[in-house]
Amino acid sequence: MKIFSKLWNKSKKPKKQRKYRYNAPLNIKHKFLGAHLSKELIKKYNKRSIPVRKGDKVKIVRGQFKKKEGTITKVFVKKSKVYIENIQTTKIDGTKVFIPLHPSNLIIIELNLSDKKRKKGLERKNG
How do residues 63-81 score in pLDDT, each as one tens digit? Predict the structure, then answer.
């Protein structure tokens, strides 16, 4: 049984921080999927970061695939990972597999505004 308390405030202990993140329900884990916006988008929306979504165009700033760009194909909320098109590796048997990336290593270049709720939320917070 998972134990999660919304009353938990903070702790300096990494063990407790990991426990909080691991046991958090999906609606709270969604907030952990935040990625920084590009400089142009920060000026446009007056917001530094926003949770990533399928269809967002991102640039990778850390790791093996640094400076590469692509569109998010899948967001795995449970493990806080994101899959990006063209960011794949080849297994020994020849099949291609997507590499999971953490959203903190990405910068959003272009937002997917097909969802009315997301569009409205950005406009509301903008002004």
Answer: 999 999 999 999 999 999 9
| 3 inside domain | no
What CATH number is given to the structural domain containing 83?
2.30.30.30
The amino acid occupying position 66 is K
Half-sphere exposure of 80 (CA within 13 A, CB side): 20
Is 28 inside a domain boundary? no
Which string of DSSP letters, residue by residue, matches the chain? -----TT----S-HHHHHHHHHH--HHHHGGGGEEEEPHHHHHHHS-SEEE--TT-EEEE-SSTTTT-EEEEEEEETTTTEEEETT-EEE-TTS-EEEPPB-GGGEEEEE----SHHHHHHHHHHH-
- 112 and 53 Cβ atoms separated by less than 8 Å: yes
Q: What is the pLDDT of residue 12?
A: 92
- Structurally, how many domains does the chain consist of? 1
The pLDDT tens digits for 2-28 are 677 777 778 899 998 888 888 899 988
7 within some domain = no
